[in-house]
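User: Can you help me understand a structure? I only have the sequence.
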Amino acid sequence: MQGYPDDGGAAKAPDANAASEQALQLDRAFIPPTTPVIRDDAERVVPNGASQPRVQAQKRQPNRSVARSAERDDVYGALDLATNNCRLLLARPSRRGSRVVDAFSRIIRLGEGVSQSGRLSDAAMARTFDALKVCASKLARARVRRSRLVATEACRIAENGEAFLEDVHRRLGLDIEILTPELEARLAVSGSAALIDPASDYVVVFDIGGGSSELILLDLSRHSRGGRGRNFSGRVDAQSCMLAWTSLPVGVVTLAERFGGRHVGPEDFENMVAETHRMLGPFEDKHGVSRLLKDKNVHMLGTSGTVTTVAGVHLGLPRYDRNRVDGCWLDVSDVQAVTQNLLARSYEERMAEPCIGRDRADLVLAGCAILEAVLRSWPCQRLRVADRGLREGILTTLMSEDGVLRTGRRRRNGRR
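Assistant: Let's start by predicting it. Here is the structure, written out as tokens:
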């Protein structure tokens, strides 16, 4: 799939309303952990210092009657209503996982201004509703067997978030649930599990979103089946390796709104890095991540549009190409060189970059600042890029529950 990368790591199709016949392997990785996961307290600190309670999402159990009657030509759907993008993915089970039959991505900036006002604006809701109408039409036309439609940070923190989703349900029939940060983190791990290097000791997985950023520390010594070095492909309980996780109330939209996104100088950039680094401090203090990673074989795995954009720029692509980006390895020094290159460019020059474009030119440096804060907190040499994540995690979950997801091994861009 080609186009611009969006803020969740999926490529925006050149024609968002056209079907994508891109083959995509999805891996059965959403298995409840058998070992405890260390998590943050029940409340999270938001920028103004107030406590924001976590939104509770209903636990979803496998539908056994559905599983017995599911067919391999059935279509499954996943919708991710994020702070910056509205994204839909429709896929069928295939010989090597799943095959995408349709995809949609549109930048809607639902969370625009929420960090200041605490509410979704009328303009943002109107943009989002228009995008959701397209999604509803695609879901109906594909005769989707099962789907899971989720919303993330913008609807979590906006005081009118639930009311907006209720209105969407009433007018469009879409039942969109608000994910907890923990479920969001777990699904991101599920969707990107095949890109984990099993020879590593630890993996730092991160998803830089529009309104929040999820960070997950995987301890591969918890890899329960097959022993160390077994490829994370197919039926691997990647989530059982989750040692700790956190959700930071900062993303590319909120950071750019606070510090500016169009005209960013070195001082502005360092202020964004410092703000994000401050938010990472409690996670480091609580879990001693630096101590755990010292002298270990570690790599990072980024599932966000920020890292796919950085990869596209680094590769010098004339047009964003998912096949070149997804699964590629980057040296951290190359990542930081791209960041410095983008920082030296004007807003107009960033907008002219094929892998950035008009819609992301004012957000990309905020994403780079969050990424830089992570890299400075836990230095390592390698970063793997994932143009996959939450939606793929949803699809693997649904298909696994129905018993129609085949296990296939595919060696691509292996450990360097």
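Now, to help you interpret it: Residues 6-68, 409-416 have pLDDT under 50 and may be disordered. The two ends are 25 Å apart (CA to CA). Let me know which part you'd like to focus on.
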